[in-house]
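TA notes. Do not distribute before section.
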Amino acid sequence: MSVQDPCAAEPGRGVDTDDLRTAIAAVEARPSSSSDLPPLAPEAHEAATAALRLLRHRPRSRHELRERLLGKDHAPDAVDEALDRVRAWGLLDDADFASEWVRGRRRRRGRSRGALERELREKGVAEVHIAGAVAGIDEADDRQQATELVRARLSRSPVDSGPGADLQGERRRLVAFLARRGYPTGLAMTVVDAELAAQVSP
């Protein structure tokens, strides 16, 4: 296996786990004689190989990948050289990572804009990339997303509006459900109240 060769993938292509694995395989399969990049130092080569193993599992931000490599006792200079090379191969791009993170977490988990921003900051993504990734989400989008989440939950567990029904308890549970996905309390309460009213109205 050689990791001294450029990848055919281009930065800006977006980050998808299957695409990433295919691109990694292309890097590893290319013969070293085809390289148009200078050889990595031995320590950096080891760090780059470790980086590719980590990226097979899922896309990562540069900060996240760097922290993992440092935690495996690779020298900082070797890690930085390795990550520069991984980026040159088109396998590491924080702007793409942030955009794909937002799309995936929004679609699968229904995360609010605020929650997505916090998650990306925890992964060390620069503010400029975070801003670009969430630029298409405004308050109206968050409200619609929260409404869809509550409706889906209520469709699975309809509200009991009969005598003795604990509507306030249901309200608290739904607001907490949205809060765990990062929605502000005010927005969550507004959405939950509207959906509960629609459920229990004659």
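Switch to the second chain here.
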Amino acid sequence: MAQMTVQIVTPDGIRYDHHAAFVLVRTTEGELGIYPGHVELIAVLAIDEIKVRRIDDENHVDWIAVNGGIIEISKDLITIVSDSAERDRDIDVSRAERAKLRAERELEEAQHAQNIDMERRAAIALQRAINRIRVGQK
């Protein structure tokens, strides 16, 4: 079976390193499905989930929440560099829900104060929290 190596790197080091038969990511341009032998490319990732179908079992899927980043595909090595990455099993959903509520309050306050910078930061924090909740509930 053809396979690829998937590595996810954050400032804390390598957060994920496994062999995969298929990877699905969302770039800023749209979804990208990757099989072994994919054309080489570099793309900007959106704040979203990454789906990795592992080679050890066709039903084994890892879900990873990333806060954007860069993906590089070179031969059969996929390298993802992101500020943070969390596997579904490692996400504290209740903590993510509290972060979501906090971001919603901050977004509302920023909109009321008409503070564009604060509004942008709160919107990103909200998007990250929602992504973590979605992946954590898989």
